[in-house]
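Forum: Protein Structure Q&A
Topic: Joint prediction for protein chains with partners

I've read a bunch of threads here and the consensus seems to be that you should model interacting components together rather than docking separate models afterwards. I'd like to see that in practice. Below is the full input, 375 residues plus whatever partners are listed. Could one of the regulars post the assembled result?
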Amino acid sequence: MSSLDPRVNRLDTKKVKDGELHTNSHLITWEVFHQEKRGKQVTHCGIVHASTPEIALVLAKEQFARRGKTTNLWVAKTTDIYTFSSEDEDIFETTPEKTFREPGAYKVRGRIEKFQKENKADV
Amino acid sequence: MNNNAVKELLYKMADDALIIGHRNSEWTGIGPMLEEDLAFSSIAQDKIGHALALYTILHDVLGEPHPDQLGFMRKEKDFHCCQYVEQPIGEYDFSLMRQFLFDNAELLRYEALTRSSFEPLAQLARKAKGEIKYHVMHGDTFMKQLGNGSEESQARLQSALNNSWHLALGIFENSEFEKELIQEGIFTGEEELKRKWLEKITPTLEAANLKLPATEENKIVYGGRKGSHSEFLTPLLNEMTEVVRTDIDAEW
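Posted by a regular:
Agreed with the consensus. Here's the joint model:
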């Protein structure tokens, strides 16, 4: 029954009936966002458990920024993140006929080169 | 420049960092929760890094033995750490309180040293200041949260503070070189540091619903800076040096 992880043993789950976990055993989860350089986009990197946003930031710093370059971190409550339902995943499917909307479909390289050549000739 | 005064300062700073780093690393794997386990371990590693940087200055600039030798081969009486950092980790409240009290002093010390006339130390202080600022942020944030948390968390912190107080004041034990250090612009001195530290931690402790214990001068735990230590240092050194004593040529 005992675990190799002392934290698990400390939870003393035997005393707790199903659905009656003490509120202290339920820390809030926070989504963590990482920014590498000032002005660069902030990207999601994981979650931390904490009771307040201040502690979430303090803990996130060591979880996600102790290696590599970081200029800032953001945290937001997981429950404040709005997402699509997984059943709606099909809205992201693209039909093959829509490739004209992708930049690769434009065959403009030739025209650009021609324009540049003409401009150079003018100068 | 008075080399002996600088050496004394570097040794006590390095030894404090090495010993508290080792102590705090004892929480690795058994911390109160996963994220804090990792954060506390990482703070401990930073301290070992500071110790190495300070021993390196002692070796490269002041001709003292190699950092490995200084860290692992000296006898208890040659260590100049304060007795506070030697104390066993106890329960988490004690370790957290020590992290808070010690690192607030450490940040003020490094801030003062950024203007040191001893340039190698000023350079190191400028580099390490950011790391220690985070350590203080960690300690301050947890004080405020747990001090205003449950009745139990507040009571635990208050008793940890009471038990730590006279040990923590031992950080500021004067060296025999205070006058030289101040006159030569190497360091602003322990008395000034203690004054600033009290000014800094008092509002944080108040915001954390904690009462500053009364100071009784004769109870302050001194001695560490002069090589007189508690019964806890030798077992720590024995454990820390186990590998190197088993195989002196081991590489890792």
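Chain B has one domain: 3-246.
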